[in-house]
Amino acid sequence: MVHTGAYTAVAVADVRIPPRSAELKLLLSLRPDASELEVCKVVDPLLISWKTSPRLATAVLSGLARERQADKARQLLSIMQRSRVEVNVYHCSAAISACEKAGQWQAAFGLLSQMTDMEANPNEVSYSATISACEKGGQWRLALGLLRTMPEVRLVPDGISCSAAISACEKGSQWQLALGILTGMTEARIAANQISFNAAISACRRGSRWHSGLCLLAAMPEMRLVPNAISYNAAISACAKSGRWELALNLLSRMADDDIVPNAITYSAAIGACEADGQWQLALSLLSEMSEKRVAPNEISYTAAITSCDKGGQWRLALALLSTMQETQVAADLISYNVVLGACRNGGLWKVALRLLNQMPGMKITPDKMSYSASINACAIEGHWLVAASLLSQMSKEKLEIDQICFNSVIHACEKGGQWRYALGYLCRMPEMRAVQDEISYNAAISACEKGLEWQVAVCLLSSMSQSKLSANEVSYSAAVSACEKGGQWQLALDLLSLMPQKRLLPNEITVSAAISACGKGGQWQLALVLLGQMPDMKLSPNEISYSAAISACEKGDQWPLALSLLVGMSSVHLVPDEISFNAAISACVRGLQWHLALVLLGQIVQLNIQPDEIINDAAISACERSGARWPWSIWQAI
């Protein structure tokens, strides 16, 4: 931020009138929206003296500028013109400065444009104040245009105008232009100052140009400029934004060498650097160091540390830091709560998320879309669809925008809760709520139908994605194939699987395993084995699920030798048979009247410490009864 008000004061420093004259006090006592007539009544007795001594008017205008009374300053200029009191460059510059301080860049630019009509030629101070006003208003193009115009009106840009333009470019994230102005200052032999360099370093931060920022910091001593806390803060922030936490901490250490005391902004930036890379231990260490150095942590410091803990999966610490903020009377803000709510989502703490959400209004913090979205997501992950749906309704009552992320979370919650009808309902509601349906929305709804054994609806949703100009992906097809598998639709499952390459989609292990299972349920054990054999050609590695599905297919097809062969073959591809694999193999042996083999497999289950389920137990008991064999004590214990 570049301040030009001090330089405007220098231009009128020859005025020997106290800054708070009686007239100025009267003007300041008027209400902010005072009319021009009210202002005229105050200054009317002074107009005659102003005609002979324009400096008196300058003093009043400068006083108004200091108090950010832009409207009164412009009214005063208008009154002076109408009363034929000389309006000079100092008067206009003071009024422009008032507009700059009040954040009225349009008014400042308007006054600069009108100066020629007032027969007051703008000077460097006029331009600098206007450029600074544009900088504060985020008008970097206009600020840059004014700087380039100065030579055309025979004015030489100085350090103040250039610094203001650099700051404007920094706010507009135009780091190249900011560096260009700084380079141009050197070429034009315009002395750069701390403000120029600090603004340029900050511009590098916004542009994620950490290296350029460090180069500028290193160049300051060569320009006989001493870096200050602002310089280091900007450089540390530049490193933080690019995830260069080691460099950020190195800069923090260098500050002590240069006898520069780090402040809360410095530490917050350094903690933010640790947050970007998930270095939660270092973030907490820096937060602790602040207390040791008697630097009071603020909400930004705490929020950065909380975010670091969240990214590092330390949700307990994130919650503890929020509690510490309350204990140390550091006001937690919306960002702090939203980060902690996000941590609750990642930690599956849906009850804690709801408690925090309800706590926010009491802390004079209004929950926003992100607050509700994180809370809904926390409920969705745990399958609490009713609570998630209730929060969505609350958002509607609060007139908050409900976006696709919120809807997707609720649909996902319905899917987890086995509520396929509600999942479809929320999917259909999205367009009327102006929430854009995406692939995630449809995938969650298809999965909900798969879990609800509604294969027809799942396939219909898959088909309708193209009508909604959405491209079904691997997840979409996997869910649809699984739905067909559960519905006993093996032919449709294979059709969907064969469609995937045509859509330039690569089937994954989940999709193929579901298709194998579908074939097994449809009595197509040969096709199931073909699919298992084709997986390497698809560049897929069969997993426990694939083998279990194939073994189950053999069991249903009364192919116990093949089932055993697959079970034994799992070790050759570095897979350990699980409960489901053994279950299918034992059932195959029982169906094939291979009682002794079934008992052998049961013994292997015991050796592998796999807990037999009811199906295995029933099959084993049946095998023992039929074979007339006595079970070892270890098998009895397992059952």
Q: Mind explaining what this structure looks like?
A:
This is Pentatricopeptide repeat-containing protein-mitochondrial domain-containing protein. Keywords: Repeat. PPR repeats lie at residues 88-122, 123-157, 228-262, 263-297, 333-367, 473-507, 508-542. GO terms for molecular function: mRNA binding. The structure is a single chain. The protein is an all-alpha fold. Among the domains are: 1-137, no CATH class; 475-542; 548-639, no CATH class. Helices cover 70% and strands 0% of the residues. It is built from 38 helices and no strands. The chain has helices at residues 5-11, 22-29, 36-43, 47-52, 54-66, 70-82, 89-101, 105-114, 124-136, 140-149, 159-171, 175-187, 194-206, 210-219, 229-241, 245-257, 264-276, 280-292, 299-311, 315-327, 334-347, 350-359, 369-381, 385-397, 404-416, 420-432, 439-451, 455-467, 474-486, 490-502, 509-521, 525-534, 544-556, 560-569, 579-591, 595-607, 614-627, 633-638. Helix 25 packs parallel to helix 27 and helix 32 runs antiparallel to helix 33 (544-556). It starts with a helix and ends with a helix.
What's this entry about, in short?
One of its GO terms (molecular function) is mRNA binding. The chain is mostly helical. Helix content is 70%, strand content 0%.
